[in-house]
Amino acid sequence: MNEKKVMLExxxxxxKYSNGDGVEHISLDVYEGEIVTLLGPSGCGKSTILRTIGGxxxxxxxxxxxxxxxxxxxxxxxxxxxxxxQSYNLWPHMTIYENLAYGLKLRKTPSAxxxxxxxxxxxxxxxPGCEKKYPGQLSGGQQQRIxxxxxxxxxxxxxxxxxxxxALDAKIRQQMREELKKIQQDLGITVVFVTHDQEEAMxxxxxxxxxxxxxxxxxxxxxxxxxxPETLHVASFIGEMNFITQGNNTIAxxxxxxxxxPGEGSGLSGEVRTIMLLGHYVVLxxxxxDNVIKCNINRELSETLKVGDKVSLVLGKHTxxxxxx
Length: 325
Ligand SMILES: Nc1ncnc2c1ncn2[C@@H]1O[C@H](COP(=O)(O)OP(=O)(O)O)[C@@H](O)[C@H]1O
Ligand SMILES: [Mg+2]
Fold this sequence. Notes:
- The protein has 325 residues and is of the alpha+beta class.
- It contains nine helices and 18 strands.
- The protein has helices at residues 46-54, 96-106, 111-124, 140-153, 170-187, 198-204, 222-227, 232-237, 299-302; strands spanning 6-16, 22-31, 35-39, 61-66, 69-70, 81-84, 158-162, 190-195, 207-212, 215-220, 242-246, 249-253, 258-262, 268-277, 282-288, 291-297, 310-315, 318-322.
- The strands form four sheets. Strands 6-7-8-3-9-10 form a six-stranded mixed sheet, with helices on both faces. A five-stranded antiparallel sheet has the order 13-17-14-15-16.
- It is elongated.
- The mean pLDDT is 94.
């Protein structure tokens, strides 16, 4: 990533609504050709950031630059960005062709070029030949593909996607993720993606920005965020995590990072509480003092254990958070 060019810069950006809600001190660099995801629970400020980038909200302070140029005084249509929302916003009375052609016509693109571009983009989003259909004749996933195609036709330097798949059912959502990743790679465009779904963020992103109550908690690759969470919020929001209290410390350890040894041993002594077979692995819960610790173990080991057995737990990779700090 070192030689990569910074395309989008947010510098100490604050956006406060009149009621005091909003986001504060947001600093973030996004590199050219990268998918960066803003991830966090509902209300943490993801859409607020995306709208300030797209120009639908003014910033209270700080700056936003694209390719080194401040864009905060530009209206949305003068920014090199395109935004796709959760609801598809296709015009129901227009055909897919008309929906797609609209923005290009405004730009006075010759109609032969429009036609060619639309054929190409429909191919790219796996919807070839649907030009004459109306949005109402398409499924939710298909409509969202068209909405993405429409924004791509304008060749934005930066594509902004606000929970574009969250209205779709799980299977389609997964498929759309893969397709978006492929389109992004093929076109080499830069994407800022917003989601509250940590799995979607992990699967899709080069880097993830984990947000919490209007500020950024951590920025890193999916592996960084998963392996080295910097705050308790990040640790609890991403993946499965055990939290073990010991004095003033909270130890965060993932179920796959706990080794279970039958009998008393040098690790944390506990007692098997439940044993759940989940296909190729087994989830064991162990009572350790007031803590219930989830451990992923293999089937072979699970067959030697029963509820109530004494076990010793050895923690592999884990993070210690000091609650008084
Ligand atoms: N137009 C608005 N006026 C006042 N408060 C708002 C407005 N839009 C969002 N908020 C508040 O700002 C915070 C962040 O909202 P938002 O950016 O929509 O979060 P997210 O997209 O992460 O769910 C929330 O507390 C929300 O209630
Ligand atoms: Mg939102």
